[in-house]
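step: validate -> pass
step: tokenize input -> pass
step: predict -> running
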Amino acid sequence: MGWAAFSLTYRAITPLHLGCHPLGFIRRTRYYVPGWTLWGAITAQLTRFCYPKASGSTYEEVGQFVADNLPTSYAYILVNGKLASPRFRKGRLFYGDLLMAEFEAQFVASLGQTAIAPESLTAFTRSLHETEVLTAYNLVSGEPVRWQFVIYMRRPWKAKVQRLKGLTPDDVLQALERLVLGGDRRYGLGLLRREGEPKPLKKVE
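step: predict -> pass
step: emit ->
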């Protein structure tokens, strides 16, 4: 048994909200995509690829397949070709080579939102809030924001279902040409589209 690894790069088409603890009326966002969020997004895409009319139990089945066979790293924004992963340096928090304040100035914005009271079509009392998002474009340079992570593929698959056993690595990569992840997806947030070819990395035994 061995593992194949691929580096995948995605361009943000819409902003992302990656839930974090709230701060008053502000719904904060993480500045990276955790592995469990990628697991959910990959499960959703692969389920739709294999089963166009999937049920809830099918998502669970594919989710277990993803957990067993397709672990990932976290996903980070690329800044000057480097991953903007968090790290402390000399007592200060950096994302890649950027101080946190510099990172926020380039990639973090907020959306004002509220619920509507149906009887009056006005803002529902105490529902006004802001949602932090990671933008689809660098707020300083205007360049598109790109994300990158590594996906590992178990070879051969650990699977009981024939349809999943019959998948090839190319099938999986085709299914992941786009990802939708994070919160507020029903409002259009969280769409990523893959750029370039998957980059094979050294095989992991």
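step: describe -> Residues 35-50 form the longest helix (16 residues).
step: cleanup -> pass
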